[in-house]
Amino acid sequence: MPPVISIVTPSYNQGRFLRQTIESILSQDYPHLELWVMDGGSTDESVDVMKSFEGDPRFHWVSEKDKGQSDAINKGLARCTGDIFNWINSDDYLEPGALKAVAEAFETRKADLVCGVCRKFEDLTDETTGYMQMEIKGNAEDTILIGRVCQQGTFWKTSVFRGLGGVREDLHCAMDWHLWVKYLTESGLTKVVKLEKLLAHFRQHPESKTGKAASQFKQEINAIYLDLFSALGAPDYLRDYLRSLTGLKLPATEWKTGPHIKPRRLFSKYCEKIVKLYYHDQAYERASVWLRRSLDCNFRISPFVLRFGSKIFWKKNVLRQGIKF
Fold it and tell me: Could you report the per-residue pLDDT of 183-214, keeping only the tens digit for each?
C-alpha cells in the first residue's frame, strides 16, 4: 500500500493566495493524500475559497479562532491519518510531481525526513530570487549550528513528527527550526535524506512573517540555543553570551540526546562562530578570548585554530605597534 501523505495548511486572511496553494496540492499526480486547511477564523474570501473545494474527498477544512500558526499546525496534525507529513503555508505552493517524488524517496530510502529543494520568488513579479534546501553538514553538531531550515521542502514521517511533540506553540517564527534541532539531538543524520528535486515554492511579500519578523526569528533562535546549551551543561560565559542576544526566556525543552551528540564539541564550534564575528569586526582581543574558550571546551589543533589563531596573533601585534592595515 503506497504511503498516504498528509498536508496541513495553516491560514488566516490569506484568501488571495489560498486557492493557488490548495490547487497545487490537490492537482498532484499522487492520489494518496489528504489536505487539512486550518483557518484561524478569516474575515476575507478564505471561507468561500475553501467551500469551492468541498467536493473533493481528500480536502478538509476548519475555520475557527486559534492561537496562531503553531496552534493551527498542531490542530491539523491531530486530524491527519497519513504516513508522511508536512505543512504548506497558505502563501506557498507545491511543485507538480512533488508528492510522488517524496513518497518514492520514503519508500526506497527508509527515511525519517526527506529534504528537497524550495524556490524563493517575488510575489508581484514571480521572479525567482533563489533556491534553498536543508543544509546538512558532516555531523549533527555542525548542522545544528547552521541555524536555519527549509521547511517547505522538508517532509516528515508522521510518527516521528508526532513523537517529537509537534511544533512548539510558544514559538511563532522558529518553531520549525526548534523541531529540527530536537530531531538532530535525539536521532542524528542517519535517516535524513536529501532529495535533489524542486518540491515547493516560497512566496516573498511584505506581509509574510519572514519579511515582518526578522528580529523575532533571531530572538527565538538564540533562545533555543540557550535552552539547548543550558540543558547540555554549557559554560557560564557561553550562556551569558546567548542571554545577551535574546530577551526571550523559554520554558525548558525536554531534550533527549543520543550518543552522536558531543556537547563539548558543540560548544567549541559555537565559540568558533563568535571568533569569526569578532574577527570580522576587527575586535581582535575579543576574538582571542573566544578562541581560547573554544579550545577550553574541546582542545584540538584544527585548521580553524591554525588559520584564525595566526591571523589574530599577527593583527593584535601589528595594532600594538601602531601600524594600520
Answer: 999 999 999 999 999 999 999 987 776 666 78
pLDDT, residue 307, reads: 79
- Check whether residue 195 and residue 300 sit in a common domain: no
Q: Which residues of the chain have pLDDT under 70?
A: 209-212, 301, 314-325
140, 184 in Cβ contact below 8 A?
Answer: yes
Kindly state whether residues 171 and 297 are assigned to the same domain.
no
Question: Domain residues for 272?
Answer: 262-325
Residue 255 covered by a domain: no
Domain count, the chain: 2
Percent pLDDT > 70 in the chain is 95
What is this structure's pTM?
0.92
pLDDT for 275-320, tens place per residue? 999 988 988 889 989 999 999 998 776 777 777 777 777 665 544 5
For residues 25 and 134, membership in a common domain is answered with yes
d(CA 298, CA 293): 9
CATH number (domain holding residue 62): 3.90.550.10
pLDDT for the residue numbered 319: 47
